[in-house]
Amino acid sequence: MKRLLTGLQPSGELTIGNYCGGIKQILDYQNDYETILFIPDMHSITVRQENPKLIQERIRKHVALYLACGVDPNKIHLFIQSENLYHANLSWILECHTPYGELTRMTQFKEKSAKQKEVYCGLFTYPVLMAADILLYDAELVPTGIDQQQHVELARNIAERMNNRYKKDLFTIPQCLLPKVGAKIKDLQDPTKKMSKSTDVPMSAIFMLDDPVLVRKKIMSAVTDSDSKVYFDEEKKPGVSNLLTIYSVFAECSINDAVKKFENSNYKELKTTIAELLATKLGEIQEKYQEILNSTLVDEVLDSGREYSNKIAEKKYREIAHLVGFGRY
Ligand code: ATP
Ligand code: MG
Questions:
Q1: Tell me, what's the pLDDT at 167?
Q2: Rounded mean pLDDT, 216-222
């Protein structure tokens, strides 16, 4: 069975963008692949987190939310990155095999560092830690949104470089898996940007745990354009195209079907239908979430994931550490 791995940072509350690029893909693949899902808490401190306790709270909330969305605890392995020390250890080795220039090309670093008062080194080297996350498990497939595609490319380059340098098939070369629809859900207030969980603009993102009343309000106030025709054109009509994309993901239909459904609607009708659909879907997920959050399931899943992931990671790490010359022979 092929192995698939993905992670979503506890850097903020999960958005419907994270659902499309991350959670939905796990739901689509968990039956056919060995699925490893981890919580990259170490990635979340690459930008300043004012309240560390919030990260811990979010870890628990995120796990409960994955399960509420339909992630099957009997099929996947779910663990917290910091509970597996091999990620940071391998990352160090990989950093010593990654040219500085390659990291300076990462667009996410440029975007995120521009927003920081002070930029810390971890934000710069974080794509290497992500490479370690992937390569430790020889994951063949890495489902993500478009924003992470460049980082998976980097992981491929690092793996190829290591394989060539040590003349061995040390690492499996991973492949990025993008969803057919929803690889980049846009910010509702500025549809030229991607929706992000670490946003400062409250109406720009819909969070999976938003109250349905607020969900409706956010959709109704989403920025569109001054035209009045509903059709899909991401260049000319980014706002409307984004709404059609959101509809398509949550109604589980193609973009073409979504366009057909709304071709004679005005913007208000389009928004009202999407708002109702999202409010209902998220409301259902939130009900399950509340039950799971207070059960023992969250810890059970995390304990078993920690054990499983450490076994695989330890073996891989020891092999690489030995090859690069660490320890005694
Ligand atoms: P942050 O702003 O803190 O980076 P984020 O919203 O980008 O948060 P991540 O934890 O970095 O979330 O990413 C988790 C997963 O969600 C990744 O697979 C990423 O590609 C995907 N993702 C993030 N934003 C979107 C989006 N707007 N549309 C589709 N997928 C997304
Ligand atoms: Mg991100």
A1: 84
A2: 98
Is there a catalytic annotation at residue 197?
yes
Which residue's alpha carbon is at the smallest distance from atom 8 of ligand 1?
197
Domain residue spans in the chain?
3-178+296-324, 202-291
- Which residues, including other chains, have CB under 8 Å from residue 317's CB and lie 6 or more apart? 86, 89, 90, 136
Which atom belonging to ligand 1 lies closest to the Cα atom of 6? 18
Q: What mean pLDDT comes out for the span 49-77?
A: 97
pTM over 0.85: yes
| Overall size of the chain counted in residues | 329
For residue 317, pLDDT beyond 90: yes
Looking at ligand 1, which residue's alpha carbon is closest to its atom 18? Answer: 144
Average pLDDT, integer, range 214-219: 98
Q: Which of 90, 64, 66 is nearest to 6 (CA)?
A: 66
CATH T-level assignment (fold) for domain 3-178+296-324: Rossmann fold (3.40.50)
Joined together, the tokens standing for residue 90 give: 């391998």
- Is residue 184 part of the annotated active site? The answer reads no
245 Cβ inside 6 Å of ligand 1: no
How many Å lie between the centroid of ligand 2 and the Cα of residue 94?
Answer: 21
CA–CA separation, 266 and 23 (whole Å): 31
Q: Which is the closest atom of ligand 1 to the Cα of 14?
A: 6
- Stated as kind and residue range, the H or E segment containing 63 is helix 52-69
Q: Give me ligand 1 centre to Cα 85, in Å.
A: 24
Is residue 173 over pLDDT 90? yes
Q: Say which residue the tokens 């913007």 belong to.
A: 267
Q: Mean pLDDT, to the nearest integer, of 299-303? A: 98
- The mean pLDDT of 224-237, rounded to a whole number, is 96
Q: Which fold has domain 202-291?
A: Tyrosyl-Transfer RNA Synthetase (1.10.240)
